[in-house]
Structures are given as C-alpha cells and as structure tokens.
Amino acid sequence: TTVIEVGVDVPNATVMVIMDADRFGVSQLHQLRGRVGRGSHEGLCLLVTEAPDGAPARDRLAAVATTQDGFALSRIDLEQRREGDVLGVAQAGRRRSLKLLTLLRDEDLIGTARTEAIALVDGDPALAGYPALAAAVAALVDDERAEFLEKA
C-alpha cells in the first residue's frame, strides 16, 4: 500500500524495500523513496522487480535509480506516458490535444507560439482583426478547454 507516502513521517527510517516496484509509477517511487533518510542518517531504497530486462517497467525503475532530480524524473515520466490532453483533464496520453507536436520535442516552439499568442490577444482580445483565427478558436475551444487556457 502507498499509505506511507501521504502521512507517515519517521525521520530515523533509513531503509525501504519496495516489492513489485514495477507496479508503481515514476512519481510514486520518487515520493516513496523520499520517506527514508530524512533524519541524520542516509537512506537506502531497494526497488525489487521480476520485470525482464528491456521491459518498459525495468526502464522506468532504472530511471528512478539513476537520479534524485524530480524535474528529470517528471520528464522521463512524460516521455513514457505522453502528455495527455494539455487543455483538459484526460491524463497519460489517452486523449491528446496536440496533433503535430509533443511537449518535450517541441518545447521551444510551443514557448514561442505562446509568447506570440499572448501578444496577439493583448493587442486584439476579441480577434476582430483575425476572423478566421477567431472562428477556428471558437470551433476548437469548448468551456473546459477555455478554463485550462485561462489557467496557463
């Protein structure tokens, strides 16, 4: 059970063994191993699996074993599970809203497009000077997606 990750804080805990570690995701494993070694002694987390070499689960465990960097692990998780619907609530690539882009590969292009879009909307909030763009946005952006755009 992963109840330990949400409320147990034992500063002197130094060893954790996670059986069937292949059944956990990258972020869960990272959170779990962060529960040991919180006191003055170093911690050790053992990830036990029977997943064969080359299996995606084994690759996931190897990634967790190689770094403590949460940002690096989130990128690895994103590479393996995909981004899901970035303008909605669907997760793990079940419903992708990006058709030609991926967040990781096209990160710079997406950032540039965001900057340009903000400048365009700041200058013409109703997109009155861009009727074709306004029509495309109206066709593609429902209330749920509009809410996610506002949060961005």
How is the secondary structure organized here?
Layout: H1 4-7, E1 15-18, H2 26-33, E2 44-47, H3 56-66, H4 70-81, H5 107-123, H6 131-140, H7 143-151
Parallel strand pairs: 1-2
Helix pairs in contact: 3-4
Tags for this entry?
single chain; 152 residues; mainly alpha; Rossmann fold; 2 domains; two-stranded parallel ribbon; 7 helices; 5% strand; elongated
Structure description:
The chain is mainly alpha-helical and 152 residues long. It has helices spanning 4-7, 26-33, 56-66, 70-81, 107-123, 131-140, 143-151; strands at 15-18, 44-47. It has a two-stranded parallel sheet with strand order 1-2. It starts with a helix and ends with a helix. The relative contact order is 0.09.
CATH fold group of the largest domain: Rossmann fold
> Which CATH-level-2 architecture of the largest domain?
3-Layer(aba) Sandwich
End-to-end separation: 34 Å
- Backbone shape: elongated
CATH class of the largest domain: Alpha Beta
Largest sheet composition: 2 strands, parallel
Order of helices and strands: HEHEHHHHH
